[in-house]
């Protein structure tokens, strides 16, 4: 059993170079179960590169990513076999993309989108899969009668919620999110934020969320990392970083928010 | 009375990098102590840094120097050096704060917002919701509003939702930033009663109060932040 105080994920000196160009450089941090880490910074600051390198989608040039697996204890994700890594990504991890089209299969039904992840971990009972899928549609506030509809008939907000259901159905412990509220209009954003916050709390999810929206970062994350030119320039308690920023770039970022 | 919070030789300055890196010194050498059953009024004219000091006590602002020790779970922890994780634990269980601003996710019902701190402490949802109902009733928020988001409420109503949320958990230490500012006489009396109840269960309270009557009614002492302003004693 993992202790609450033991990190679920440990990232050490992670560096990703594209030739001579820095993607991200010397990033280190730990994440505990139930903890939400926000990564903010302008476009091109290395947020998404960092997220991809942590989430085993792109092997870093240098550094390690260690994860507390359910069965084998702490493992370096880039030292695992391809099969082990794929299993981890399909079960214990989840990835919510900014564009739901990148995280959904658009040509199969909503129910099949959710069921697919269950089948990937060996669930074969059609009735169970269907009722589980239905249950998750309900959790993300999509009506049961849409279970057999294609995601392409859903609105953007619904697609995003479906993507979340598809990801969370296997009870992952770590969720990566890349601008999950990005393309949504404000009222839909609020609904999604509320949903995400509830799920994070109820399921004790650890989350790494990349966003350029500081209001989203404030409402969802416990800790905040500010990136500029591939480096983490400030890292701390979310409200402290936003209300009393120390680094010149963070001050610029915070002072550039439009006031309501 | 036992000591719950102790600020030692605390200094604070702001460096504004976006405005020519000018450094604004605010406080130096602050010594402040808070014990169980006390309600200390932070005083000083408008702009003297009362809210800044309170935010430092909550670890919302960093300190440039010194220590702020908080008695949490039987141990003294310095919030100026504690990890974000520890600070969140301290805020969850020891250190309550009623700010002047309500910051919530749109769409979440008032009842849930008020109950949330208790739910986070592990109280079952029903007990937490019952207590939230009690507080909202005492603070005269009409029941027909409980299922709505407080973001649509008037300033005074939002303030009272904030107070209900701040008082729902029995925090050992409470920081109150102008809890009675925009309230009418009846609601002010309710807030004063809540503060008295917190004191009698042994809470250590620091507050900023605009009016003398409130201060005189509930405070056991006062602390003038201006005496620690940089240059105050030159």
TrEMBL record, chain A:
GO molecular function annotations of the record = ATP binding
| PROSITE patterns in UniProt | ABC_TRANSPORTER_1, ABC_TRANSPORTER_2
Q: Which residues form the ABC transporter domain?
A: 9-254
List the Pfam families hit by this protein, alphabetically. Answer: ABC_tran
Q: Which UniProt keywords apply?
A: ATP-binding, Nucleotide-binding
> Is the keyword Hydrolase in the record?
no
Show the SUPFAM superfamilies listed in the entry: P-loop containing nucleoside triphosphate hydrolases
Does the UniProt entry include the keyword ATP-binding?
Answer: yes
Instruction: Write down the InterPro entries for this protein, in alphabetical order.
Output: AAA+_ATPase, ABC_transporter-like_ATP-bd, ABC_transporter-like_CS, P-loop_NTPase, PhnK
**Per the UniProt record, which residue ranges are transmembrane?**
none
Q: PANTHER family given for it? A: PHOSPHONATES UTILIZATION ATP-BINDING PROTEIN PHNK-RELATED
Q: What is this protein called?
A: Phosphonate transport system ATP-binding protein
From TrEMBL, chain B:
- Look up the domain of life of the source: Bacteria
Question: What SMART domains does its record include?
Answer: AAA (SM00382)
User: Is Nucleus included in the keywords of this UniProt record?
Assistant: no
Q: Supply the enzyme class, top level.
A: transferase
Enzyme Commission numbers on file: 2.7.8.37
Q: Name one GO molecular function term.
A: alpha-D-ribose 1-methylphosphonate 5-triphosphate synthase activity
For this UniProt record, the keywords arranged alphabetically read as follows:
ATP-binding, Nucleotide-binding, Transferase
Q: Which residues form the ABC transporter domain?
A: 5-230
Q: Belongs to which family?
A: Belongs to the ABC transporter superfamily.
Q: Which NCBIfam families match?
A: CP_lyasePhnL
* Name listed for the protein in its UniProt record: Alpha-D-ribose 1-methylphosphonate 5-triphosphate synthase subunit PhnL
Q: Which organism is it from?
A: Thalassospira tepidiphila
At the highest ranks, the source species' classification is:
Bacteria, Pseudomonadati, Pseudomonadota, Alphaproteobacteria, Rhodospirillales
